[in-house]
DNA sequence: CCCTACGGATTGTTCAACAATCCCACAATC
DNA sequence: GATTGTGGGATTGTTGAACAATCCGTAGGG
């Protein structure tokens, strides 16, 4: 009947409505988004307390609404809540680095090896992230390189074909931003991996999954050790120069 | 109506609230815990709406506190929030099953193969879960078998040595409970896997990681197909008997 | 130097209210 | 008869103010 003519239109309309909803969202989500950005950009540094009243005023929302936003970020491990003391920006330690990398070493190589969704779209996403990284590197924009790296690893996990796995990976990657912000000079933690990403993307495009997986696994191992060493230096400095 | 269906539940919730007060810290967490339990136990079925005022009264907390709890459960994918319509118990579909299993097929075999934490404590946890399952099966307690199964797979992922990965796995397993509650007869979805769990635990205790991993991967494949078939039947029934 | 009491600040939680939005039933229209 | 307005009621999103519980720094007292 005429309904079949109408169906695609109806579908596009309802899709547009959902999208508008997702963009506008509720004020709690907007507040959470703003805070998350401040933390991942490094404007809010690890350990800073977030007093509810002042923060609520600054964000233009009520305290109750703010608390919903804070709870969400606590669930994402970006913030930490201490009872009757408030929420603070999480301060990762060596154990956090080891834990995150233990998870990544399970997920990422397995996605590369066994992911069922190695198709054109996902390969293009990988290449796009690689290009984004080299472009940012050319500008000396190391924060940009960090974002590009994040996009690369999200694209890697997307090969598994699971929205949920990607969402969980994004939590790990957001926590990684906290790691980097604790390092002094970001360049040595990002620069060496630009070429690695390109090589891995090339392997995958050529169908050499095992090569890509082993390269990625090695990559994750050295990156972890480098970060742990960085945290060791921080601890050393804190020990020798007490407040 | 849905109201009369909800009432006895509300009563039981308010009864349990005194019990938990001493154990858990904040009342938002207590409320979230109580609700999560009701959903995973199957008392609250998929699709039921959770009106804020009545639920807040039943749990003995204010509406604002309840909203914090609901937000947390929404983040866990146990509940779904529709703007201006409220939160409902999530109703998974075939896509959700496929997505969850895509994630599990990445994480679990990799944890078995490459997990660095295959020590006595973790092997004991596996065996304990196996015993818990056979015991529950002996009582004909299929909900108990489901819990034991959940514990088994949590123990499998714990081999990876990452708290965060275990936490993420627990979200997937909680969502699995929703799948099972939509199936009519739980037995065929739990019984076949008791022996499999025992075999896998045995392989791991003997150091045969590859054998354990391949067995686990096959296991996950058949379980997924079985669940998808179950959901197909539900859809079929809904199509042939319209409301 | 250690302990303790005290006061201010912050959180945990509640309550009451209002606008925005959705749902449903009913009337009006073609 | 099916489709389209059109209230009215219920529910959510959000706010503001309030109070008790708890923490933290500080000032005395031993």
Short description, anyone?
Chain A is built from 11 helices and 3 strands; from the N terminus they run ααβααββααααααα. Chain A has 243 residues and is mainly alpha-helical.
Describe the structure.
With 243 residues, the first copy, chain A, is mainly alpha-helical. The first copy, chain A, has two domains: 3-89, Arc Repressor Mutant, subunit A; 94-240, Four Helix Bundle (Hemerythrin (Met), subunit A) (Up-down Bundle). The first copy, chain A, contains eleven helices and three strands. Chain A has helices spanning 3-24, 27-41, 52-59, 63-75, 94-114, 120-138, 142-158, 163-182, 187-190, 192-205, 209-240; strands at residues 49-50, 79-82, 86-89. A three-stranded antiparallel sheet of chain A has the order 1-3-2. In chain A, α2 (27-41) packs across α4 (63-75). Chain A is globular. Chain A binds chain B through residues 21, 26, 28, 64, 67-68, 71-72, 75, 77, 83, 99-100, 102-103, 105-107, 109-111, 114-116, 160-165, 168, 171-172, and chain B through 25-26, 28, 64, 67-68, 71-72, 75, 77, 83, 99-100, 102-103, 105-107, 109-111, 114-116, 160-165, 168, 171-172. Chain A binds a DNA duplex (30 and 30 nucleotides) through α4. Chains A, B: InterPro entries: GntR_C, TF_FadR/GntR_C, Tscrpt_reg_HTH_GntR, WH-like_DNA-bd_sf, WH_DNA-bd_sf. Chains A, B: Keywords: DNA-binding, Transcription, Transcription regulation. Chains A, B: This is GntR family transcriptional regulator. Chains A, B: It comes from Nocardioides imazamoxiresistens. Chains A, B: Residues 25-92 form the HTH gntR-type domain.
């Amino acid at each position: 009947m005429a309904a079949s003519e109408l169906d695609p239109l109806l579908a596009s309309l309802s899709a547009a409505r959902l999208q508008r909803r997702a963009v506008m969202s509720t004020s709690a989500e907007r507040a959470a988004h703003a805070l998350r950005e401040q933390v991942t950009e490094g404007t809010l540094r690890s350990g800073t307390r977030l007093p509810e009243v002042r923060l609520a005023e600054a964000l233009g929302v009520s305290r109750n609404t703010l608390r919903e936003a804070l709870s969400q970020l606590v669930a994402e491990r970006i913030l930490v809540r201490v009872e009757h003391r408030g929420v603070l920006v999480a301060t990762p330690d060596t154990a956090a680095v080891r834990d995150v990398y233990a998870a990544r070493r399970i997920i990422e190589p397995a996605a590369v090896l066994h992911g069922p969704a190695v198709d054109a779209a996902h390969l293009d996403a990988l290449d796009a992230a690689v290009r984004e990284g080299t472009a940012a590197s050319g500008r000396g924009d190391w924060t940009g390189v960090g974002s590009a790296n994040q996009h690369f690893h999200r694209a890697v996990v997307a090969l598994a074909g699971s929205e949920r796995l990607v969402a969980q990976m994004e939590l790990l990657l957001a926590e990684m931003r906290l790691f980097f912000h604790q390092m002094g000079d970001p360049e040595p933690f990002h620069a060496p991996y630009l070429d690695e990403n390109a090589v891995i993307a090339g392997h995958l495009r050529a169908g050499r999954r095992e090569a890509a997986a082993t390269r990625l696994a090695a990559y994750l191992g050295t990156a972890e050790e480098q970060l742990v060493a960085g945290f060791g230096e921080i601890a050393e400095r804190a020990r020798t120069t007490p407040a």
